What does this fold into?
Amino acid sequence: MIMERLKAETRIHHNRLENEPLSRGLTAADVDRARYARVLAVYYGVYAPLEAQLESTVDWRQLGFDLAPRLKTPLLVRDLALMGIGADQLSALPQCSRLPQISDLGAAIGCMYVLEGSTLGGQLITRHIGPALHLNADNGLAFFNSYGPDVGPMWKAFKQFAETHAAGREEAIITAAGATFEALEHWLGAGALLFDRDYVPNAALTAIVKNSGSNAVSGPLSRNSASAN
Ligand code: HEM
It folds into this structure.
């Protein structure tokens, strides 16, 4: 069963992501709109290029799988616009280039496992951010809310799709899931550095991403180590 293997073999990545400062900041008692907007901007920088690859690599229609309603980039764009980050700023934001190559269906399933699975954690974040910032799916919380009450059924449908197409692709799926988690760890770890600075979207993000080497991947960043960089 590929889903069991995926869960077991990527657990260590998930634990790291759950504990890195960017994620923890979202469920902190003192979360505010500025912090929330920064997090969305960082997520945009990695979701947009990953989803562009997913869209272009596989003929989803031929497989009978509807990818469009699962794409989160449009939700990020909408939320960011509502947080005051318009199209001009958005197009100037840096995008992650250290990404796995999604070159076939196996890699696409592995990558989607990570992005689809994140909707489960998104529910917890939604339950915290919603009341804390007076947000809902219509006024800025669409990304983390993702499928709303349909998160369970959407996850179940993805699991069935993955199991149906896993035969002969297991290693490619596992490898791509691990690489996708690593890309997220790298990018969100770099983005976490923003929390010790005043937010200057483009300059700050660009400098951070340029300067972030492999250290950004290897573990949680403390506030102290962040400000030392
Ligand atoms: C970008 C960040 C994240 C990614 C990519 C991610 C990814 C995933 C994946 C792939 C799964 C599915 C595990 C399985 O195979 O059943 C999952 C489940 C889950 N995640 Fe995350 N996650 C992220 C952040 C978070 C955060 C910040 C939290 C907590 C606030 C969280 C809480 C959960 C929970 C509660 C589950 C369900 C576990 C279960 O039902 O067994 N995740 N996540």
